[in-house]
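Worked example 2:
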Amino acid sequence: MAGRRTRVSLAGAFLVAAALVGGPLVGACAGASTEAFPAREGRRRRVTCAVAGALQGLVIGLVGEQFPHRNLSGAVVAATVGLVAGFALNLRIVLRALGRRLRAELRAARRAIVVGWFLPAPLLVVFLYLDETRPSLALVLAAALLLTAAWANLFRRRLERTLAGERSRARVDALTSAPNRYALTEALAYEQARIGRGGRTAALCFLDLDRFKTVNDTYGYAAGDRLLVDVHQRLRSELRASDLVFRWGGEEFVVLAPHVDRAELADFAERLRLLLATRPFAIDGRPRTVTGSVGAVLLDGSRPAQAALEAAGRLVREAKRTRNTAVVERAAAGAAA
């Protein structure tokens, strides 16, 4: 049982096969084992699902004893009754036990759940028939299926890790390891939603390094790259853990600071400026003073996040006229202070 990204699981078919072949006791053990060990689930959910699985296995085993499967038609009947009984019990028990949140998850994942229960039905029929007629062949079939499922699960996990790594790298600047524009878009959407739920406002600041082209022309591009890395590291180490520093591009950074209100905005913008100006950076092995211009706006939910970002960009261009300046948007007229 999972959310909107639920993958197809063969636990249901495994439970039915174990109960129909081994009887009620084996079915109960199989049902509990298929639900008790998912590490990502909470303890309450694991216990509830394990009890539900054990009950399913017990009932399927008792029902399955009433249907001999020595011939093909008997195997079909036993498999059908077992799958339907297990599926019905699964929905009934879990829906009653685990509240509205899981019910919404089950509705979102209904196709995957149905496929996971009934897609292996032909293999289950073959296995039940062979178990009565050719037990050794049934054992070989079961072992092959388990090995295939284990290999496929291993491959899936590796693929998920690879995709997660690619998604992470796509949101990180290759030079500074700072989150990039794509990560900023996601963070702004999250902040807007948080503020819309009644949370405190946030500061959104553009920071543009002054005379950065001079650094590249005088000391070379490698020194300029090293300076960008040092600027990000200083900002990251001096700001709060909740403050996010993004690489916008070139010599520009964007800082998103949650829980900053209108009265604190100017102080926060000035602090950003001073973080650069009051302590020199090492460029080409020598201490050099580097300043930055800051444009700051308040993210308060009154306008789209993209509009707030554009406003901060206009303010930082205004600050660049004099350099080493922090320009903050006023509340009423939307002008600079």
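The beta strands are 202-209, 244-249, 252-258, 281-283, 286-288, 292-299, 326-328. Residues 1-8, 332-337 have pLDDT under 50 and may be disordered.
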